[in-house]
Write a structure and sequence with these properties.
The chain has 180 residues and is mostly helical. The chain is built from 8 helices and 2 strands; from the N terminus they run ααααααββαα. The protein has helices spanning 3-6, 14-27, 34-59, 66-78, 83-90, 94-106, 128-149, 154-169, and strands at residues 110-114, 122-126. It has a two-stranded antiparallel ribbon. The protein starts with a helix and ends in an 11-residue tail after the last helix.
């Protein structure tokens, strides 16, 4: 009897599910790249857990979503920015930035002004209230980031950054779809 394969779905953990999935994918369907599946499922899971934690513990109490924070963070550190460029830097679509910026403008944390050099274009910038709020909120997030990262040593953190960088930059071998 294979304990991993015989666990009822209600008794599965993330890791026992990965074991079950890898076994089924190999034995029943003939897929050969279980390590790649495990790597990307784990990466996605880690990203989702951390993002949800930041959103629930830091951003929602301030009335923001994770997406709101990302747009304000980029605008804060890049300075007044065109919506198209903000979309690229946040990994969001231009439509998402447009819709989100309307809400943040009405909340008084973001301003939209005509571009001084190109009258057809606009720039997003933080208001004074927005600047004060993003600094305070990021202080909370940075403490949370440190708590998450501190389970790894500094060399482990640097290695993980290098490996993730390699994963997302060495993708010319296939047609990657998605935002930069």
């Amino acid at each position: 009897m294979n304990d991993k394969a015989d666990v009822e779905p209600s008794g599965l953990t993330f890791w026992s599910f990965i074991d079950r999935a890898n076994e089924k994918l190999r034995s029943e369907y003939g897929f050969e790249h279980q390590l790649a599946t495990e790597l990307l499922l784990t990466l996605n899971r880690a990203s989702n857990i951390v993002t949800y934690d930041f959103e629930a513990s830091v951003h929602r109490p301030h009335g923001w979503s994770w997406s709101s924070f990302r747009l304000l963070f980029v605008t804060w550190l890049a300075g007044p920015i065109e919506p198209k460029r903000a979309a690229e830097l946040t990994g969001m679509s231009r439509a998402a930035v447009s819709n989100l910026s309307k809400t943040l403008i009405s909340d008084g944390v973001l301003a939209r002004t005509p571009d001084e050099t190109d009258g057809r274009s606009v720039r997003l910038a933080l208001t004074d209230v927005g600047h004060t709020k993003i600094v305070a909120v990021f202080r909370q997030q940075n403490d949370r980031e440190h708590a998450w990262a501190s389970v790894l040593t500094e060399p482990e953190q640097r290695i993980l950054i290098l490996l993730l960088n390699k994963l997302i930059t060495d993708r010319s071998q296939f047609d990657v779809r998605g935002r930069n």
